[in-house]
């Protein structure tokens, strides 16, 4: 019995030794991956926005009195000079007011002349004591009232003449008519817009920029502007004005870029402007380096001391066209897996090469 027991133990040991040899033979080789070292770099947010060329000064022209339009002299696109008549209203009522004011003025002048003569006679008579002081004082008061009525009549005539002149709508400066909203026969109210006048002089490129671009602050002052039809005609310009309010309907902020005098682009020319935000520091990685850790962005990091990998959550500041920017979770010089990371496990040993 004893020799059989020793033989059984020997066979068992031989079997276990054979299993260990199989285990060692079945151990897989390290996973082959490609890596890149994480390097710090500056990055800027940029955007190309389309806009159009507009006049620096643009005004809405309107009549200062109400009336029916009887004449329109210009149309959209016309170049006008300061003082040029653009349209006229029916002025029959205003003409009648002027005639009535002139008649009232002539009457007031006649009354003043009459009261002046009466006052002069009263002054001579009171000196010779032919009339009483009270009678003289009354003559002086009547002359004063007549002179006041004359002043009022002169003011009324000036007001009537102004109202008559307001039936003509004139250009307030040299420029181009860019819009109109009246036709002959139309009844216009006072202050109702009739024409839009783009003044001659400086020009701006106007862009409506989505508010998300301003999350990092206002864009840099320098902007590259070029006509949409020919990018080779681009010029360097500077931002002149950023609107302090957001267009709530479109979710945009208006930016006006001052164009140099050598940019001879007509009003309404479609242009494209390249806006950039202030530079920031971060680590830029290609998209094939990104992984997921419970739904959060992560990367596989290689530990050089033992060749194992670790899944690290990262803070992504921005996703761009061909890469993404990391601002937290990894440090410069960390080795980041870019290829072969789909089937990795935490702590797995890898063999790596450069990308």
Q: What labels describe this entry?
A:
coiled coil, 4 domains, single chain, conserved putative lor/sdh protein from methanococcus maripaludis s2 fold, six-stranded mixed β-sheet, Elongation Factor Tu (Ef-tu), domain 3, OB fold (Dihydrolipoamide Acetyltransferase, E2P), 3 helices, efflux transmembrane transporter activity, alpha+beta, 355 residues, six-stranded antiparallel beta barrel
Question: TL;DR?
Answer:
Residues 101-167 form the Multidrug resistance protein MdtA-like alpha-helical hairpin domain. By secondary structure, the protein is α+β, with helices and mostly antiparallel strands.
Report on this model:
This is RND family efflux transporter MFP subunit. Keywords: Coiled coil. Belongs to the membrane fusion protein (MFP) (TC 8.A.1) family. It contains three helices and 24 strands. The strands form five sheets. Strands 1, 18, 19, 20, 23 and 24 form a six-stranded mixed beta sheet that branches. Strands 3-12-15-14-13-16 form a six-stranded antiparallel β-barrel. Strands 2-17-22-21 form a four-stranded antiparallel beta sheet, with no helix packed on it. With 355 residues, it is an alpha+beta fold. A hairpin with a 4-residue loop joins strand 19 and strand 20. Helix 2 (92-127) packs antiparallel against helix 3 (133-165). The protein folds into four domains: 31-42 and 282-353, conserved putative lor/sdh protein from methanococcus maripaludis s2 fold (Beta Barrel); 47-56 and 202-279, Efflux pump adaptor protein, beta barrel domain (Elongation Factor Tu (Ef-tu), domain 3); 64-89 and 168-198, OB fold (Dihydrolipoamide Acetyltransferase, E2P), CATH 2.40.50.100; 91-165, Helix Hairpins (Orthogonal Bundle), CATH 1.10.287.470. The relative contact order is 0.20. Mean pLDDT is 88; it is low at 6-11 and 21-25.
């Amino acid at each position: 019995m004893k020799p059989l027991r020793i033989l059984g133990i020997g066979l068992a040991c031989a079997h276990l030794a054979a299993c260990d040899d199989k285990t060692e033979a079945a151990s897989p080789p390290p996973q082959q991956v490609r890596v890149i070292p994480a390097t710090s770099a500056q990055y800027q947010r940029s955007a190309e926005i389309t806009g159009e060329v507009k006049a620096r000064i643009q005004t809405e022209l309107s009549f200062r009195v109400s009336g029916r339009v009887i004449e329109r002299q210009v149309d959209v696109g016309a170049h006008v000079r300061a003082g040029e008549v653009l349209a006229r209203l029916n002025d029959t009522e205003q003409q009648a007011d002027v005639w009535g004011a002139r008649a009232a003025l002539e009457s007031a002048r006649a009354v003043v002349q009459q009261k002046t003569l009466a006052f002069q006679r009263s002054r001579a008579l009171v000196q010779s004591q032919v009339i009483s002081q009270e009678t003289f004082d009354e003559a002086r008061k009547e002359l004063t009232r007549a002179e006041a009525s004359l002043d009022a009549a002169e003011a009324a005539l000036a007001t009537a003449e102004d109202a008559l002149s307001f039936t003509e709508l004139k250009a307030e400066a040299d420029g181009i008519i860019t819009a109109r909203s009246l036709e002959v026969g139309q009844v216009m109210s006072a202050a109702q817009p009739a024409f839009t006048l783009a003044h001659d002089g400086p020009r701006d490129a106007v862009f409506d920029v989505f508010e998300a671009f301003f999350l990092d602050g206002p864009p840099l002052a320098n902007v590259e502007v070029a006509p949409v039809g020919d990018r080779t005609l681009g010029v360097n310009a500077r931002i002149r004005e950023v609107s302090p309010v957001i267009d709530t309907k479109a979710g945009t902020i208006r930016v006006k870029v001052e164009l140099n005098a050598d940019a001879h682009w007509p009003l309404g020319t479609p242009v494209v402007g390249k806006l950039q935000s202030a530079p920031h520091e971060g680590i830029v990685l290609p998209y094939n380096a990104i992984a997921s850790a419970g739904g959060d962005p992560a990367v596989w990091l290689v530990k050089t001391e033992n060749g194992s990998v670790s899944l690290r959550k990262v803070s992504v500041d921005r996703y761009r066209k061909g890469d993404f920017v990391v601002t937290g979770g990894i440090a410069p010089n960390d080795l980041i897996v870019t290829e072969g990371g789909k089937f990795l496990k935490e702590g797995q040993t890898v063999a790596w090469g450069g990308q």
